[in-house]
Each structure stands twice: as structure tokens, then as C-alpha cells.
Design brief:
Layout (H helix, E strand, L loop, with lengths): L2 E19 L5 E21 L4 E5 L10 H9 L8 E7 L10 H16 L6 H9 L5 H6 L3 E4 L4 E4 L6 E6 L6 H6 L24 H7 L1 H10 L5 E3 L6 E5 L2 H9 L6 E8 L3 H13 L1
Parallel strand pairs: 3-4
Antiparallel strand pairs: 1-2, 2-4, 2-5, 2-10, 5-6, 7-9, 7-10, 8-9
Catalytic activity: 4-CDP-2-C-methyl-D-erythritol + ATP = 4-CDP-2-C-methyl-D-erythritol 2-phosphate + ADP + H(+)
Pfam families: GHMP_kinases_C, GHMP_kinases_N
Function: Catalyzes the phosphorylation of the position 2 hydroxy group of 4-diphosphocytidyl-2C-methyl-D-erythritol.
Length: 284
């Protein structure tokens, strides 16, 4: 049976501005997404049984709530082959960490099953399906470092120089929903009218999350001795940007045992897309 293994890479929000809240409860925002060459690993295998099986580190999430499962179900109406799918997940990204683990898993699932089930859907159509699963899914489907607007679905590709990051998870799980519904969240940051520079941007969620989760504030303070620090997304992961792998590893080696972390380089093209392109060439 045909199989395919792809990474579901981490993302970082290098900044996150919240411009307004819409009538439907969603927020208008501006953010800069970049990918890291590090993430969950997923293996997809077509099966003779007409069902969707998921094995691996899915935590306590019920099957019907699992974004991997939801992504597979969403593609069922488009398949051209009558096969099921078996999915094995090796989890490396923390849940509730703000590095896009669930959204990235969902996007990688859409990309892989689109090929295995011969759905022949464009990335634009996959992104539309993905947006119903989560606001961050489209950027992973498109697979390019991007400046995002709207609720995260209006993407403009950008190229950034490669940097190394040390990403730290302070072992607290932040609820994205709780952050975006909190009355103290800033929702009126003016939209950017000219080019952005990281020094003139910020994460509008950071002050609130530091207040609600003191361990996040402690993590940011600890990382500050190594360089400028920032929280990604709604947290809880925090990062410091460095010039090389050696410098990033030095930070990780000094990490207090109460936290988890990893080092990785940034990449303008998602590793999932790079791997999928290689697989497609091998099929020809």
C-alpha cells in the first residue's frame, strides 16, 4: 500500500498585532509567520479498510476532536480511490505551546492525503478547507514564510534570512480561546502602514499571558540574557533569535530542568512541502 512520511513543522510568530475584533468573535490581526526545521512526524499509509486510524502521541484528545482526524474526514468527499488511511503521529511539539502543533498536523494531513487519495485539490482549496479547522492552518498549507492579515488567511509571502532559534516551553498550557476572549487583551493596535521591522513590533498577547501565567514571564526574563526575546502566538513557548547553531545550542544546554526546549533554523519553505516535493519526484 502507498505510504508517505512528512514533517509537521513548528512555526513562530515573529510578531503578532491585534487590530480589531469582528462581530463574529474572530480577531483581525497582523503577524509574521516563519517555519522552523523541526516538528512532529506523521506517517500516512493507505489501507484496504475504509476507515481513518490514528496512532501515536495524541494525548487525551478524543478522536472526533483531533485536528488530524478532522482534516482526513474533510477530504473524504474528494477522494478518487476507495481506501482508508492509517496515520502514525510522533509528537515533538508541545500542545498549547503556540508553535502551531495542532494546526501544522492538520495541514500536513491535508497535503499528504490530498496525494494519497488523489483528491487533486489545489493549495488554495486545501487552505479554504483548513481555515475551517483553525486560523493558522492555511499558512502551513501554503508553506511559505508569510506576512498574514485578516484572521490569518490573507498571506503575503516574504523571504527572510536564515536565523537560528532556541525555543523554550515553560511547561504551562495556554488556551488560545481563553486569551482571545479575555477582556484585558489589547484589540486596537493600528495597522502597519509601511514596512515592518521587528524592533518596532511586538506580540499583543504577551503582556496578558505573562500576567495569567507567571512562568511565561520567568522564561522570557531568563532568555533575555542571550538576546531579544519574545513569546510566539498566544504562548506559552518563548524564543530567542541567534546567529548560529552553536549559540542556540549553548542556550539550550543552560536551560533549567523545569523547562523543555529545542533549537532549529528558520526556513522560508515548510519542510513538509520540501519533503512532499521529493516524494512526488520519486513517484514519477
Amino acid at each position: 500500500m502507498t505510504s508517505l512520511s512528512l514533517m509537521a513543522p513548528a512555526k513562530l510568530n515573529l510578531f503578532l498585532h491585534i487590530n480589531a475584533q469582528r462581530a463574529d468573535g474572530y480577531h483581525e490581526l497582523e503577524t509574521l509567520f516563519t517555519f522552523l526545521d523541526f516538528g512532529d512526524e506523521l506517517n500516512f499509509t493507505c489501507t484496504q479498510q475504509d476507515d481513518i486510524e490514528i496512532e501515536g502521541d495524541t494525548g487525551a484528545i478524543a478522536l472526533e476532536d483531533n485536528l488530524i482526524y478532522k482534516a482526513a474526514v474533510a477530504l473524504r468527499p474528494f477522494r478518487s480511490v476507495e481506501t482508508g488511511i492509517s496515520i502514525k503521529l510522533s509528537k515533538k511539539l508541545p500542545m498549547g505551546g503556540g508553535v502551531g502543533g495542532g494546526s501544522s498536523d492538520a495541514a500536513t494531513t491535508l497535503l499528504a492525503i490530498n496525494q494519497l487519495w488523489k483528491c487533486n485539490l489545489s493549495h488554495q482549496k486545501l487552505a479554504e478547507i483548513g481555515l475551517k479547522l483553525g486560523a493558522d492552518v492555511p499558512v502551513f498549507v501554503n508553506g511559505k514564510t508569510a506576512f498574514a492579515q485578516g484572521v490569518g488567511e490573507k498571506l503575503t509571502a516574504v523571504n527572510l534570512p536564515q536565523r537560528w532559534f532556541c525555543v523554550v516551553f515553560p511547561n504551562v498550557h495556554v488556551s488560545t480561546g481563553a486569551v482571545f476572549t479575555h477582556p484585558d487583551l489589547p484589540r486596537n493596535t493600528p495597522r502597519l502602514t509601511s514596512g515592518w521591522q521587528l524592533a518596532n513590533t511586538n506580540n499583543d498577547c504577551e503582556a496578558l499571558v505573562k500576567k495569567l501565567y507567571p512562568e511565561v514571564e520567568k522564561t522570557l526574563g531568563w532568555l533575555l540574557k542571550y538576546g531579544p526575546t519574545r513569546m510566539t502566538g498566544t504562548g506559552a513557548c518563548c524564543f530567542v533569535e541567534l546567529d548560529c547553531a552553536t549559540a542556540a545550542q549553548r542556550v539550550l544546554d543552560s536551560l533549567p530542568s523545569c523547562w523543555q526546549g529545542f533549537v532549529a533554523p528558520s526556513t522560508n519553505i515548510s519542510p513538509a512541502h520540501t519533503q512532499l516535493d521529493s516524494w512526488l519526484k520519486m513517484q514519477k
